[in-house]
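Allow me, if you will, to draw on your knowledge of protein folds for a short while. I have a record of one protein: its chain in single-letter code and its fold written as discrete structure tokens. Could you please explain, in whatever detail you think fit, how the structure tokens follow from the sequence? The record follows directly beneath this note:
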Amino acid sequence: MRTHRLIALFGGLALLTATALPGRADPLTKINVSYSMTSDFLPALVAKDTGIFEKHGLDVTLSSLATTSLAPPALQAGSLQIASLSPPLLLLANDGGLDLVAVSNVAWLDKNDPHSSLITRTGLTVTKAQDLIGKRIGRPGINSAIDVLLKKWLLDRGIKLDQVTIVETPFNQMGDLLRAGQVDAVVALEPIMSRIIASGVGVKSVDFISEVNPRIAAAIFGATRDWANANRAHVHAFRDALTEAMAFMKSHPKETDEIQQKRLGFVATPADLALDLGPADFDFWIDALRQLKLLQQSADATKLILN
């Protein structure tokens, strides 16, 4: 009898001790997330490296993509649960048969805080779209946000797309191609834009993006609709972590710069960061893609954002 009471006593103490031990919280939810090598996605990097994701119950594995065009098939295959995308890429993926939704906005292209521009080779002056007729323009990614905006700007100003030559040009090659005269202009983002100008091989030209629309949702996180619907709590935790990370960035600029240098290899001021996204932001892209005759199916902006 005494033995039984001792066993019960020690068993109860063991249970109490185990309950009180640190590290016995609910297990973290594992999520694979991609980011692009721009400061737009810095909040996710900060959330990872400061433990903010873990605070929100998420074990996030981050991976960079050479191009965002790899994101839709990775989401569909399940190797990514949340991926860095642009609105036109999400729309084109869905038009091709996928079913993706935006789970969060990330960054805006804003006229009051421009982080991109048309850069022309030194000696070439471009003040309007007509000046580019017969010229060769480098831009990253076919059907990327920049590609769509450039073509829309030209069309809106009466320039036929066969009157210019638009070629795919990686950001890290833009300066060299301008120097060699292989392109007459490039569309660059920070910090590449400032580096090209500082090198003397190019000059800042037309801020055509602001002429198209003064404020555009340009970088988002997306997921498959099935995964997002089945994991709404995790999606909201992901957003909450990004919100906390952006607050951290404001109050800890030195630590943020260190994370950016480690992860991206440079330090640049991020674009206008904000997570809110509405149907009207997708309506702009839907209209632009239809103008370029890139959408074959109908698209309902109200169904493209997970609330």
